């Protein structure tokens, strides 16, 4: 065990790569989720169809298969990606498809009365979305987005199979150099667990912010006002 | 309630257009005919109350005017323009987004359930559309909004959150929000029905003030007969998608001629 | 390099054999996940705080760490404590245990949905604990969550390529083998990708029909 723990710089470097993959992958997934998710609620049947095809196709694809295809098959027809790029692309495309469904569902779940109020105020379609529907929908998106973020972080372990030096690959190297299989994998399982818990805290924090924005729980200003009230009594 | 000068300035100026006209309007939901060949007109500045049993099509009329629903037949005219249809050459064709945007500019609506935006402060609720739709500067919009919040007695709640207000306060904000767009026509859809009884009076007082101090055209669906008697010039009694009786509030409430009007008024007044 | 239909046809049988292993591993792993998940869910309702908190964190741990790492852990750690399984069995255990953390949440929601009155009725009838769970609570809870559980079958199917990392000859593994031997990766990888999409889209369509039927009952 001490062999494993003394190699912590190696594991930290690996963990850093895992975090980078998670950040880049989820940034791509977020953009794709909004683009295709909003297409799914469009008025034009053609636009909706494009959104549908993206979602069905990439939800149906296994991340690892997609990544292998990008990494092994595409170079043969002239597209060569850096491993990191192929990995982020595969993770982002895959999780983005799930995210698109979340976005579409959340926008649909905003009460119709809110939409009617935007019409009564003569807002343009884009303004309705940007000013009223999306801010409310985002609050609904956060919990499922949090789950997807964890899924993406966990899914990033597969990049070790195309030789990216993430936490998983570092563990393999360490296993070979120390021979302490069980200890190595236990340690990195714990590291992954810690990363996941931190991500969860982050999402919870954003959920709280969204709740305050929607007035579902008192914000700091209101809270301190309540505190003064309590003190006065 | 005292009205301050900025509030009065924030309201629409006195100018007349030619009002509202329904020409043979038909509205169906599936097999259910809600409005059958409805004809009626409202003059500019006139305040009209629509009464009648639920399901008689009153709310549908307001929703059609707000373009939240589409007519199945007939034409609605607002200030000389056909609503939901536009002229192409001599023919009337279904309106597109751009045309609807233009005609909606004259109309404002207050909903039964307030429909305030929960993601904005009270002030923001009132300024959002003036800033982004009317392209007012933030300062102008704030000034107008503060005047209107003062008018509805909520100047001190500008920075509060809708969820922190009572239903009556929320509805008064919703009224300020509608007025901030300076509509020529204000549609009031059962604006006190969702309120606890003790909060109704505050909202109705605000509406009385607006009725007394502006010449905004009002179309009002309500079960508050006292309010209807006080503010309206004319009352229309609806049943099964048609007007069965109309007249001044004195006539309708004191000596209704139609049997269905009498039955309806008995039923409503017994409840209160 | 361009697409070679002849080559594609030649390697298809190999890939389909891989698909059979993939489906096998998925179904067996799913069975493990369904049973183990139910066990977790019932233990979470245990009156002992120690039991339900331990189970809670074990499940949370399994769920928030990567399946791939868990597979390696099982693959290398089990033999070191004297348990030697074939790669496929290790893979099935790994898939099953990992997904039991998801199914347990589904069952938990289903159990929470059973009206309090049902529990009170079992107390009033003085039913033994076994009958409470198997006779009253679980039949109602499980029935409601069947469509949701179905989604995890598809999710597992898409995670099954990870088994290649512990040398299970599943479909992606076969494709990689073929590619490495012939130095042609385009056809095997593309075929595997297409097969995956076809199987998972078809099964999600099937699932939606099932969901519809259950929804109507």
TrEMBL record, chain A:
Topology in the lipid bilayer: Multi-pass membrane protein
Transmembrane segments: 15-41, 53-71, 77-98, 132-150, 183-203
CC terms in the record's Gene Ontology section: ATP-binding cassette (ABC) transporter complex
UniProt keyword annotation of Transport present: yes
Gene3D superfamilies reported in the protein's UniProt record: MetI-like
One Gene Ontology molecular-function label: transmembrane transporter activity
Keywords annotated in UniProt: Amino-acid transport, Cell membrane, Membrane, Transmembrane, Transmembrane helix, Transport
GO biological process, one term: amino acid transport
Positions of the ABC transmembrane type-1 domain: 15-203
Entries under NCBIfam families matching the protein: ectoine_ehuC, HEQRo_perm_3TM
Family membership: Belongs to the binding-protein-dependent transport system permease family.
Protein name listed in UniProt: Glutamine ABC transporter permease
Species in which this protein is naturally found: Actinoallomurus iriomotensis
Gene name tied to this protein: glnP
Automatic annotation (TrEMBL), chain B:
Locations listed in the record: Cell membrane
Entry membrane topology: Peripheral membrane protein
Chief place of localization: membrane
Xref: SMART domains: AAA (SM00382)
UniProt xrefs under Pfam families: ABC_tran
Key words of the record: Amino-acid transport, ATP-binding, Cell membrane, Membrane, Nucleotide-binding, Transport
InterPro entries the UniProt entry points to: AAA+_ATPase, ABC_ATPase_HisP-typ, ABC_transporter-like_ATP-bd, ABC_transporter-like_CS, Ectoine_EhuA, MetN_ABC_transporter-like, P-loop_NTPase
Gene Ontology molecular-function annotations: ABC-type amino acid transporter activity; ATP binding; ATP hydrolysis activity
One cellular-component annotation, GO: plasma membrane
ABC transporter domain residues: 20-265
Similarity annotation: Belongs to the ABC transporter superfamily.
Name of the protein in question: L-cystine ABC transporter ATP-binding protein YecC
Organism, as annotated: Actinoallomurus iriomotensis
Encoding gene per record: ehuA
UniProtKB/TrEMBL annotation, chain C:
Chain segments annotated as transmembrane: 20-43, 71-97, 189-207
A Pfam family this chain is assigned to: BPD_transp_1
Subcellular location as annotated: Cell membrane
Organism: Actinoallomurus iriomotensis
Top-rank taxon, per record: Bacteria
Membrane topology: Multi-pass membrane protein
Keyword flag Secreted: no
Record-level GO cellular component terms: ATP-binding cassette (ABC) transporter complex
Recorded GO MF terms: transmembrane transporter activity
Key words, A-Z: Amino-acid transport, Cell membrane, Membrane, Transmembrane, Transmembrane helix, Transport
Residue ranges of every copy of the ABC transmembrane type-1 domain listed in the record: 19-207
The name this protein goes by in its record: Ectoine/hydroxyectoine ABC transporter permease subunit EhuD
Protein family according to the UniProt entry: Belongs to the binding-protein-dependent transport system permease family.
Gene Ontology BP, a term: amino acid transport
Main location: membrane
């Amino acid at each position: 065990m001490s062999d494993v723990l003394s190699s912590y710089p190696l594991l930290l470097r690996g963990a850093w790569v895992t975090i980078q993959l998670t950040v880049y992958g989820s940034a791509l997934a977020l953009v794709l989720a909004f683009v295709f998710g909003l297409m799914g609620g469009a008025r034009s049947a053609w636009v909706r169809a494009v959104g549908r095809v993206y979602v069905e196709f990439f939800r149906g694809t296994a991340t690892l298969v997609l990544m292998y295809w990008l990494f092994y098959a595409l170079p043969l027809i002239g597209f060569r990606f850096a491993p990191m790029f192929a990995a982020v692309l595969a993770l982002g495309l895959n999780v983005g498809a799930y995210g698109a469904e979340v976005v579409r569902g959340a926008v649909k779940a905003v009460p119709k009365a809110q939409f009617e109020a935007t019409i009564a105020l003569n807002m343009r379609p884009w303004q309705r979305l940007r000013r009223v529907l999306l801010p409310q929908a985002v609050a609904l998106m956060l919990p499922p987005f949090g789950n997807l973020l964890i899924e993406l972080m966990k899914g990033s372990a597969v990049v070790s199979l195309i030789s990216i030096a993430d936490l998983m690959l570092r563990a393999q190297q360490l296993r070979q150099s120390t021979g302490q299989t069980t200890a190595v994998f236990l340690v990195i399982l714990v590291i992954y667990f810690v990363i996941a818990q931190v991500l969860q805290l982050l999402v919870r924090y954003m959920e709280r912010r969204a709740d305050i924005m929607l007035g579902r729980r008192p914000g700091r200003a209101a809270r301190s006002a309540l505190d003064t009230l309590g003190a006065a009594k | 309630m005292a009205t301050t000068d900025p509030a009065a300035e924030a309201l629409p100026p006195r100018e007349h257009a030619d009002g509202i006209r329904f020409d043979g309007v038909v509205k169906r939901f599936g097999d259910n005919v809600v409005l059958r060949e409805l004809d009626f007109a409202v003059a500019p500045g006139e305040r009209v109350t629509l009464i009648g049993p639920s399901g008689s099509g009153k709310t549908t009329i307001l929703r059609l005017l707000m373009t939240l629903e589409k007519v199945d037949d007939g034409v609605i005219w607002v200030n000389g323009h056909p609503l939901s249809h536009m002229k192409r050459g001599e023919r009337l064709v279904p309106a597109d987004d751009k045309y609807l945007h233009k005609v909606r500019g004259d109309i404002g609506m207050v909903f039964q359930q307030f429909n305030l935006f929960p993601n904005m402060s009270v002030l923001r609720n009132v300024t959002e559309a003036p800033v982004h739709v009317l392209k007012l500067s933030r300062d102008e919009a704030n000034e107008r909004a503060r005047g209107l919040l003062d008018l509805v007695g909520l100047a001190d709640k500008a920075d509060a959150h809708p969820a922190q207000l009572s239903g009556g306060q929320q509805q008064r904000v919703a009224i300020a929000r509608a007025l901030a767009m300076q509509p020529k026509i204000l549609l009031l859809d059962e604006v006190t029905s969702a309120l606890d009884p003790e909060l109704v009076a505050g909202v109705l007082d605000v509406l009385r003030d607006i009725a007394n101090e502006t010449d905004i055209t009002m179309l009002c669906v309500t079960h508050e007969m006292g309010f209807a008697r006080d503010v309206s010039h004319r009352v229309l009694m609806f049943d099964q998608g048609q007007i069965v009786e109309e007249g001044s509030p004195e006539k309708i409430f004191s000596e209704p001629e139609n049997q269905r009007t009498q039955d309806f008024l008995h039923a409503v007044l017994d409840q209160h | 390099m361009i697409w070679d239909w002849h080559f594609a046809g030649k390697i298809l049988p190999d890939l389909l054999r891989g698909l059979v292993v993939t489906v096998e591993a998925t179904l067996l792993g799913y069975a493990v996940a369904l049973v183990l998940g139910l066990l977790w869910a019932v233990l979470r309702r245990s009156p002992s705080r120690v039991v339900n908190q331990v189970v809670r964190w074990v499940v949370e741990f399994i769920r928030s760490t990567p399946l791939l790492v868990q597979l390696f852990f099982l693959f290398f750690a089990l033999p070191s404590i004297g348990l030697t399984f074939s790669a496929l069995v290790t893979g099935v255990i790994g898939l099953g245990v990992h997904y039991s953390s998801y199914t347990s949440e589904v069952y938990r929601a289903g159990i929470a949905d059973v009206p309090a009155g049902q529990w009170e009725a079992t107390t009033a009838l003085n039913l033994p604990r076994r009958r409470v769970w198997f006779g009253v609570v679980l039949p109602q809870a499980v029935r409601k969550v069947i469509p949701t559980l179905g989604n995890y079958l598809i999710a597992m199917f898409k995670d099954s390529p990870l088994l290649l990392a512990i040398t299970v000859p599943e479909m992606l593994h076969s494709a990689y083998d073929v590619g490495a031997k012939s130095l042609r990766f385009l056809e095997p990888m593309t075929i595997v990708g297409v097969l995956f999409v076809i199987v998972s889209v078809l099964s999600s369509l099937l699932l939606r029909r099932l969901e519809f039927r259950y929804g109507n009952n």
